[in-house]
Amino acid sequence: MIKQEPDGKDGKVEQRAAEKEDKIEETKETGALSDLTILDLTRVVAGPFCSSLLGDMGARVIKIERPGTGDDSRAYGPYVNGESAYFAMLNRSKYGITLNLKTEEGKAIFLEMVKKADVVLENYRPGVMEKLGLGYEELRKINDQIIYAAVSGFGSYGPYSKRPGYDILAQAMGGLMSLTGPKDGEPTRAGNAMGDILGGMNMAIGVLAAVHARTLIGHGQKVDIALVDSIAVSLENAFTRYWVTNEVYKRNGNAYAALAPYDSYRARDGLCIIACGNQKLFEIFSREVAGHPEWIDDPRFLSNVLRVENMDELKILIEGWSRSYTVDELVSMALNAGVPAGPVYDISQIVKDEHIASARDMFPVVEHPVIGKMHVNGDAVKMTETAPRITKPAPLLGQDNEKIYGEFLGITRERLAGLKAEGVL
Questions:
Q1: Which residues lie across from 37 on neighbouring strands?
Q2: 338: containing domain
Q3: CA 199, 200, 201, 206: dihedral to nearest 10 degrees?
Q4: Total domain count for the chain?
Q5: pLDDT of 29
Q6: Which residues are catalytic?
Q7: In 64-166, which residue ranges form alpha helices assigned H by DSSP?
Q8: Cα 157 to Cα 146, 153, 215, distances in angstroms
Q9: Do residue 331 and residue 397 come from a single domain?
Q10: Distance between start and end Cα atoms, the chain
């Protein structure tokens, strides 16, 4: 772990390297991040999603929750045997302890743990940690190697930094809602917490970049992630079109402003996606799949630019053909000709799919101490040598107090009972 050495940067780096080797040897099964210890103060979605990714990659993540109530998401359904499956999904691969950071004793305990940690994660509103005396500037004084990562609605600086931030606000102000929904319909929130998920991903990327940078610059740094930033940068072509043409992207259902045909099309029993990403694919689709070679020479569809301008007319023609077939038939015909196509799945179909659910193992089963066997979302990152894996189910509130506090600070069981009675744990 990290120790504050008086003899300069080189001594600290060597000490850290030796201690990391010891820790890796002790763990036997080495994950890609098994030499990192992370103190996780985050709650609800964005931060916990980030720390679950890092935990699956082998980091030792210690989730720190408020005594008594814990993470807000413990109160979110659905419930199984009185435990939140929502919380359990987002908090696997972590140890769980309780600590009241509003008490002086709680702050002192946290600061001692920071001395032995690599990363601190938090998603309080900017300024909260500073008011507690636990902001980045204070933490770096006791451990200049610490990487401090914060995610919030609007980031730690700027005119909106002190505003409360939730996923729906990020989607609204970041632009995603303006692009989503039926043509001529109202702006629509994406069905999942896309702002939180993208924010959590960017937080993980920032942490990994800072961990690498530490080997280059010799000390840690602060990583600042905003949900609204994460949404805004994900909109790619919408902003490009605006900068180039001054055109504000209009909602267009499942169609795409850059390509056509690239949309959902009505089949006899549902919707099928057909995605012609270039001129060659459009010609193959028209000639070999749909049996309408005349579309290729139609003046409205001679180029991708023209097809985008006339996508409504093209969709009418395609659906005049596609409605005669089932989704499975359309997909099979398109794929046999080399044209990208696929069904529009609902959740019940995804979890049974032979590729996504089975071959790619995206919904592994874990054994939770209260819930029992439960499916959780797997990892999208696949690696040949240090593959991410779920190391443990989500912790019960305060489950690992004795183990973690005993190991980190040498606190005895009797003292833990006293701290609990005092409201510190």
A1: 60
A2: 262-344
A3: 90
A4: 2
A5: 63
A6: 196
A7: 85-90, 104-114, 128-131, 136-142
A8: 21, 11, 27
A9: no
A10: 24
